[in-house]
Design a protein that fits this description.
By secondary structure, this protein is α+β, with helices and mostly antiparallel strands. Among the domains are: 139 residues; 204 residues, no CATH class. The protein is built from six helices and 22 strands. It has an 18-stranded antiparallel beta barrel. It has a three-stranded mixed sheet with strand order 9-8-12, with no helix packed on it. A hairpin with a 4-residue loop joins β18 and β19. It is elongated, with a radius of gyration of 46 Å.
Length: 664
C-alpha cells in the first residue's frame, strides 16, 4: 500500500502547484503595474519571487527565507537612505523624497504582503492535504490490499447434486392393433379388461435422484448415487393392497386412505431407497484413483451408458478399480471390473458377517485400457472463437473372460459346493470401441463405432459338453452412430442428422429378449423376439452365431418404436434428421423424424425390412434456477416389417408425454 500513498501525495502536489504559481504571478504583475518602470534589478527580484511560487514545498520554504533576507537588507538600505536624506534636508532645507525611494518603499510593502498571502495559502493547502491523506489511510485500513492473497474458501464437507422428476405418459395403440404373432404375443402389452376395446395406457411416475459427495479433504472424496421412490408409479402402493399389510380396515381399493412405502418382494420390485453406486476418489501426484461401484460411460453411450440423463431409466453400474492419468495430452485409464462373482459364502450362521467369493474360476473378469484426448467444453469454445478446429478422440478396449459358470447363483450359508454345481463355460470376448469428435466453427461431427468379438466354448446352461459334441458359439457384433450438427442464427438454430447401425442376425425375432415369456425354444419365422442361437436340435435348427448388436437402452433414438415397443436398437439401420430452435434462453422446441428398417428381413415380425417412420416433437422450458418442463408428442406410421403374420394391417401409434423436473 506504500506505493499507492506516495502516488496520491504526488498527484495532490502537482494539482496544487498550478494555483499557487498563478497566485504568485498575479501578485508580481500588480507590482510591475504600480511600479510602472521597474529597473533590471527589480525585475530580476520579481522573477525570483515568481519562481519561488512554483517549486515543491521544500524549495518554496527556501525561497521564502531568501525573500525575507532580501526584505531585511532592503529595509536596512532604506533606513540608511532616510537618514542620509534627513541630513541632506537639514542641510539643504527640507527637500521631498525622490521617486526612486518611493518605488523601493512600495516594492517592499508589496513583497511583504505577497509573502504573507503565500504563507497563508500554503498553510491552508497543507492542512487540506494532511486531512485527505489521513482520511485515505483510515479508509485503507478497512479495504483489502489488491496484492494481498485472499484466504482460500473453506472446504465444504458435504455437497449434494441430483434431480427430482415426474413423468406423465399416455401410450395410444402401441400394439398397433396388429393382434398377436405366431407365438400368441402382441407387440406391446394391452389393457387387460378389454384388449379389443380401449387401447390407451396412461400413468405417471417419479424419481428422486441424490448424488452426494463427501469431501474428506481436497484430494479425497466419497461419492454416491441414491434413488428414492425410483420410477414409482403413482398409486402403486395403496394401503388397501393385500400385500401391504398396512391396515385391516380397508377392505377395498376404492376405500384406500393413504399410500405406503414400497418394500421389495412385498408390494414392489425395489425398496423405497435404492443405493445404486458408491465409490471413492483419491487424487495423487500422478493421477486419480477410483474404486467401488460406479457408473460406466464411454463416448456417445452406445456401448456403456451411465444413465445420468434427466429422462434415463437404467444406467450401467460396475464394480471397478481404475486409475486415470494424463500422458502427452492424453488420458490413460487402466481398470479392472468384476461384473459377476459366482458362488458366495457367508460366515457360518452369521448373515450379517463378511461374505466372500467361494470360487475364483467362476468369476467374470473384465480388463480395460482406455486412451483418449478429450477437451472440456470451455476450452473447445475458446479455441473455436480463435478459428481453430478441435479434434477429440479415444479408444476403449475391453477384454472379458469367464472360465466356469454356476448353475444356480446365490449366497450359501455354511454350505460348500462341489464340482457338480459348476459347468464349463470358456467364454472370452474382446470389445474395442472407437470414439471421435470434430468441432469446426459452427459444425460438430461425432461418431462412435464398437465391435464385440468373442467365443463361448460351452453354451449349455446346466451341463458340460459331451465328448465329441460342439456346444460352442461365435460372437461377431458391430454397432455405430454418426451425429452431425450445425448451428446458425446466433446459435439459436441447430440442424442435425444422425445415422445409426446395429448389426443383425438371420435368426427369427429381433433378439432383444432371449426367452420371451420363459420360452426356451428356437423362434420361428414371424416371431417378435427370441434367442438368436441354438445348440439343441430337439428344439430347432442349430445356430452357433450371435451377431445382433444391441444399443444401450439409455441411448434414446425416438419416443415409440425403439424406446417402448422394442426397448433397444438392434438388427437395424435408422436415419434421423433433427431441427431445434431456442426461442429464448429458456424456451425452445425440437422436431425429428426417424426412418427405421431391419438388416435382416427374417428378424422383423412382418418378414420385411421396413419397420416404420416416426415423427416426434418437443416443446421445452428450462429456468435459470433448475426447473425443467417439456411436452412431447410422437406418432409412428408402421410399415410392412411391423405387420404380424396374421393378415391384420398395423395401425398408427401415438404418445403424449409431459415431464416436470427440478435439478440441483
Amino acid at each position: 500500500m506504500i506505493w499507492k500513498r506516495k502516488r496520491w501525495t504526488l498527484v495532490l502536489v502537482v494539482l496544487l502547484a498550478g494555483p499557487l504559481a498563478a497566485h504568485g504571478q498575479e501578485a508580481a504583475d500588480g507590482s510591475r503595474q504600480e511600479g510602472q518602470a521597474a529597473e533590471p534589478g527589480a525585475a530580476a527580484e520579481s522573477g525570483a519571487g515568481e519562481a519561488a511560487a512554483r517549486p515543491s514545498d521544500a524549495e518554496a520554504d527556501r525561497g521564502a527565507a531568501s525573500a525575507q533576507a532580501d526584505a531585511a537588507r532592503e529595509a536596512a538600505g532604506e533606513t540608511a537612505a532616510g537618514e542620509g536624506a534627513g541630513t541632506q534636508t537639514k542641510e539643504a532645507g527640507s527637500s521631498p523624497p525622490s521617486p526612486e525611494a518611493l518605488r523601493e518603499s512600495l516594492r517592499a510593502e508589496l513583497r511583504a504582503e505577497m509573502q504573507k498571502a503565500l504563507e497563508a495559502e500554503r498553510a491552508r493547502v497543507r492542512a487540506e492535504v494532511r486531512a485527505a491523506v489521513a482520511a485515505s489511510l483510515a479508509a485503507q485500513e478497512w479495504e483489502p490490499d489488491e496484492f494481498e492473497v485472499e484466504e482460500a474458501p473453506k472446504l465444504e464437507l458435504f455437497e449434494l447434486d441430483g434431480y427430482f422428476r415426474m413423468r406423465g405418459d399416455a401410450f395410444v395403440n402401441f400394439d398397433l392393433n396388429a393382434g398377436e404373432d405366431i407365438n400368441g404375443r402382441p407387440l406391446f402389452p394391452r389393457p387387460g379388461w378389454n384388449p379389443d376395446g380401449s387401447d390407451t395406457l396412461a400413468s405417471a411416475n417419479q424419481r428422486l435422484r441424490l448424488a452426494p459427495t463427501l469431501n474428506v479433504s481436497e484430494d479425497i472424496k466419497i461419492k454416491m448415487t441414491v434413488d428414492v421412490l425410483d420410477n414409482l408409479v403413482w398409486g402403486q402402493t395403496p394401503d388397501a393392497f393385500p400385500l401391504n399389510l398396512a391396515t385391516q380396515n380397508t377392505p377395498l381399493l376404492a376405500f384406500t386412505g393413504t399410500s405406503v412405502e414400497p418394500i421389495a418382494g412385498q408390494n414392489a420390485a425395489f425398496d423405497s431407497i435404492s443405493v445404486k453406486r458408491i465409490w471413492g476418489e483419491v487424487l495423487t501426484p500422478i493421477g486419480l484413483l477410483r474404486f467401488g461401484r460406479m457408473g460406466s460411460h464411454w463416448g456417445l453411450g452406445v456401448l456403456a451408458n451411465d444413465g445420468n440423463c434427466l429422462d434415463c431409466d437404467y444406467g450401467d453400474h460396475v464394480d471397478r478399480l481404475m486409475f486415470v492419468t494424463k500422458i502427452a495430452g492424453h488420458y490413460v485409464v487402466p481398470a479392472i471390473d468384476t461384473p459377476a462373482t459366482g458362488y458366495l459364502f457367508q460366515q457360518r450362521d452369521r448373515y450379517q458377517g463378511q461374505a466372500f467369493d467361494l470360487e475364483q474360476r467362476d468369476d467374470v473378469q473384465q480388463y480395460i485400457l482406455a486412451v483418449a484426448r478429450r477437451d472440456n467444453q470451455e476450452d473447445i469454445e475458446k479455441r473455436l472463437l480463435e478459428g481453430e478446429t478441435v479434434l477429440n478422440y479415444g479408444v476403449y478396449n475391453v477384454l472379458r473372460v469367464q472360465n466356469v459358470d454356476v448353475k444356480v447363483p446365490g449366497i450359501y450359508n455354511g454350505t460348500e459346493k462341489s464340482r457338480s454345481d459348476f459347468v464349463e463355460r470358456g467364454a472370452v470376448a474382446y470389445i474395442p470401441d472407437l470414439w471421435v469428435r470434430v468441432n469446426a466453427g459452427k459444425l460438430r461431427v461425432e461418431a462412435e463405432a464398437v465391435a464385440i468379438l468373442g467365443r463361448i466354448e460351452n453354451a449349455d446352461l446346466l451341463s458340460d459338453p459331451d465328448p465329441g459334441s460342439d456346444n460352442s458359439i461365435s460372437i461377431q457384433q458391430f454397432g455405430a452412430v454418426v451425429q452431425s450438427e450445425y448451428k446458425a442464427v446466433q446459435d439459436k438454430l441447430r440442424v442435425g442428422l444422425e445415422l445409426g447401425f446395429a448389426s443383425g442376425d438371420a435368426a427369427p425375432g429381433m433378439g432383444i429378449v432371449a426367452t420371451p415369456g420363459g420360452a426356451s425354444q428356437y423362434p420361428e419365422a414371424g416371431s417378435i423376439d427370441g434367442k438368436q442361437f441354438n445348440i439343441d436340435p430337439a428344439v430347432g435348427q442349430i445356430d452357433r452365431d450371435i451377431n445382433n448388436f444391441k444399443f444401450d437402452p439409455d441411448y434414446h433414438v425416438d419416443l415409440i418404436l425403439w424406446r417402448e415397443i422394442f426397448g433397444q436398437v438392434t438388427d437395424a439401420l435408422y436415419l434421423k434428421p433433427t431441427v431445434s430452435y431456442d426461442l429464448t434462453h429458456a424456451f425452445g422446441f425440437d422436431v425429428q423424424a426417424i426412418y427405421s428398417r431391419t438388416i435382416f428381413a427374417e428378424s422383423a415380425p412382418g418378414l420385411a425390412n421396413d419397420l416404420g417412420v416416426e415423427l416426434d416433437g418437443t416443446v421445452r422450458y428450462r429456468s435459470s434456477d433448475g426447473f425443467v418442463a417439456k411436452l412431447q408428442y410422437g406418432i409412428l406410421f408402421p410399415l410392412p416389417g411391423l405387420a404380424l403374420q396374421n393378415g391384420v394391417s398395423p395401425e398408427i401409434a401415438q404418445t403424449v408425454q409431459g415431464h416436470f423436473a427440478i435439478e440441483f
